[in-house]
Amino acid sequence: MLELNNIYKYYNPGTVSEVCLFKDFNLKITDNEFVSVVGSNGSGKTSMLNIICGSIPIDRGQILINDADITKMKEFKRQRRIGRVYQNPALGTCPHMTVLENMAIADNKGKPFNLRFGTNRSRIDYYRDSLKSLKLGLEDKMNLKVGSLSGGQRQAMALLMTIMTPIDFLILDEHTAALDPKTADLIMEITGNIVREKKLTTIMVTHNLRYAIQYGNRLLMMHQGEAIMDKNAAQKEAMCVEDILEVFNRISIECGN
Amino acid sequence: MFTYMYNLFSSIDNQRGSILIQGLIFAILALGVYITYKILDFPDLSVDGTFPLGAAVTAVMITKGVNPFVTLPVAFLCGAFAGMLTGLIHVKLKVRDLLAGIIISTALYTVNLRIAGKSNVPFFSKDTIFTGGAIGKLFGDMNSTVTRIIVVAIIVVLLKVLLDLYLKTRSGYLLRATGDNSTLVTSLGKDKGLVKILGLSIANGLAALAGCIYAQDQSYFDVSMGTGMVMLGLASVIIGISVFRGIRFMKPTTAVVIGSVIYKLCIAVAIAAGLGANDLKLVYSVLFLVILVSTRERRKKVKENA
Fold this sequence. Notes:
Chain A is of the alpha/beta class. Chain A is 33% helix and 24% strand.
């Protein structure tokens, strides 16, 4: 379970350009929830993910994972139990290392990085099988540098690498936004399967309202640092893309855009 | 076997031999620069200080009568310590990479002077790794240039193989990942700062080791011998990598070692063409610029990662 309690976050504090993003922000995500998060640019979606992962510090408040306070925990330590896929496919893989080496390095997450051989030969078949499940032909390209793959292939690999070791949370930060519609559909399908199979607690930020409706069992809409809409699975079932668009239009009229 | 080797190398005269020796010695430095510049993507300038640091430590130990083979690990550790300081300044105090290197290399100038006691320490009459101990007995009656080539070649090959093996370990993978995509290292739950410090330590350890062997080859220490070492290492790395780019099976470390010898050859050609010792640094610079421009190595990496 993840809890954000009374979060305050100011950008450029103490200057004329001071911006208050979160003011007493609260959010509770229980186990096995798949939360889709939508909202306009600057509404605080990615900032929320950054706060959970520890990429940006908060000014006040408390972050709890399974009742343990991780507010002061360093980013790299938090990420041991969190998997994150970024919008940019380049951020999830190492371009100058081969597909096999990338899989191996992800497989070693949580283990000591000592002087044992980086690629465990006995795991190669497992890597090949999991690459095969992506249906992108990556299993035949194990010795190719990842930098030579397409964005979709890299993003699929990034997703696979993220969930290779046991994690408490999967965080998807607009992970299909940089892909063409067909590849995006494919990646979303893979994502859905993985989340269902591994019963992962997931937070997915997306600008694609169709995905927000289609996937997940909870829908959150962010606006000016607040969750202005929070629908559970049953309410979400009854919603369609137009309903979300209508809320979008209403709030943009309210704030005068 | 050694007679066979002797016959093989006896055709090498002293002048050509010393080009090869120096090329191989600087290959050790180049392997270090390869780690920082190519693997970690960290422009490390502290090498200018750690190379003479290794030489200074060696000069003092050898004049005090310490076994010359002991100087090798000691020089490596001294360099690794200095590299660690560069890393700590960059990572913990958040000083920019270039500046952290400048701070350490400038500070090391004084440190090197303090260690050596004066700006120039010759030790021509002392035993070195090339003349002392078992090596002296083994090669005692042979052409000294050949002995030197064999000794340096063994050390270089050993270091190259060790580095290749290291880069295949989990720790080595992490080092490569840090230069490639530091976000991923954080995602793996590892502190990328620590990995950088580790890489800088190994690289500067190698630089100091090169300084140690260079001092023993020349039998003197000079406080200014570090000037231009960054460039020399970089030039070797870039030549090696770009000349052998098309050859798949060749490891980059091998390419770097050969690149270093090629670079020394280029300089030897320039000297043979009539340039004097005082013109050397200018030759280094111009040659480096030519290499940079001709190989299009100028910050290509930034684009690739974008």
